[in-house]
Amino acid sequence: MSSFTGPVSSSLPSEEIVRSRPTCHIIVGMAGSGKTTYMAQLTRHLGSECYIINLDPAVTHLPYTPSIDIRDTVDYKKVMSEYNLGPNGAIVTSLNLFSTKFDSVLKILESKTSTIKHIIIDTPGQIESFTWSASGTIITSSLSLSFPTIMTYVCDTVRCCQVSTFMSNMLYACSMMYRSRLPMVIALNKIDLQSSKIIKEWMDDYSTFMDAMECTGEESYYNSLNRSLAMTLDKFYSTLKRCSVSGATGEGVEEYLQCVDSARSEFFEGFWKDMETRRDEKIAKGEAVKKESLKRLEKDIEDDKKLKSEDGGEKGEGVKGDDDGA
Ligand SMILES: Nc1nc2c(ncn2[C@@H]2O[C@H](COP(=O)(O)OP(=O)(O)OP(=O)(O)O)[C@@H](O)[C@H]2O)c(=O)[nH]1
Question: What are the boundaries of the region Disordered (predicted)?
């Protein structure tokens, strides 16, 4: 799996150091999918082993107590009025403002690595404001350069039992996974209300999804688009880790943590290896550029010398001095 598009520094921690670090879970999902409720359940389960960060500037109530809260740094309502923005624009701007201070967050996290095993991050309900914004990319990249990081995509199982909602969610998850290049866990949430069996079948067997689409009785452009997309997504499903959970009852948290463990290993096999290769490539490229510059400099000096000998050294002291200096 190739990965990273942000800055690569040769002063990054080694794999050995990163391996001993807590796993960072970035919790994403469509509005109302149950991210916050599930996070509360997860953090209750993990207790003092986890460190919680809230990145949703517009949330009014949280059922958990975050250790770092974007709302302590950025006043979303003020951003709205000062920059004359609507709700979504204000979320993106608040995230942008917060991302400029993200180095301080990383420093705090660094100081906690010996006492925590998980860093859990809640993101705004307006999924695109985090996943498709520059600040979302900066935050995700910064975290993944210091900690084994995974994306947890929370799905509302009740709504995903409709073929069109299922497809929208999978397309979103797929694009986010390929954009971030991080391992992804799909948490099929709200299983206290609806079994996730049918969704798993659709992921495992393309023909069952086709059958479900036939059952809608529609032969529309939308269905033929869904059919083509389903074929394309087939490969994506095979790379996913998925589990069934309930933010309401806590069911499935253990299964989720097993998925996280395997996603963590995938992080080192895919993302981290690729990142190191890129870093080595960049250093090697830097060396090559240096060598090339040196060659050019030597050639310039040679050319200069040739010119001077052709001129018979008539250019006087100044040029001689330059030559000596070179
Ligand atoms: N029955 C049931 N309800 C749930 C579950 N998870 C969340 N809910 C309900 O779904 C609604 C949305 O839950 P939230 O946790 O606020 O969802 P969210 O994704 O954080 O919402 P946004 O931040 O607005 O995107 C709330 O009414 C929750 O009580 C679940 O596992 N089972």
Answer: 301-326
Q: How many CA atoms lie within 13 A of 241 on its CB side?
A: 20
Residue type, 112: K
The closest residue, in CA terms, to atom 32 on ligand 1 is 190
Distance, in Å, from the CA atom of 166 to the CA atom of 35, rounded to the nearest integer, reads: 17
- Cβ proximity of 18 and 279 under 8 Å: no
> Does residue 87's CB lie within 6 angstroms of at least one atom of ligand 1?
no
| Strand, coil or helix: 316 | coil
Residue (of 150, 167, 139) closest to 24 by Cα position: 150
190 lines ligand 1 (CB under 6 A): yes
Pocket flag, ligand 1, residue 57 (CB < 6 Å): no
CA torsion angle 178 180 185 186 (round to 10): -60
> Model pTM?
0.81
136 Cβ inside 6 Å of ligand 1: no
Q: What is the DSSP letter of 14?
A: P
Show the tokens assigned to 64: 């958990």
The per-residue pLDDT for range 177-236, each reduced to its tens digit, is 888 889 999 999 999 999 999 999 999 887 888 788 777 666 667 677 777 777 778 888
Burial label for 104, CB within 10 Å (0-12, 13-18, 19+), is exposed
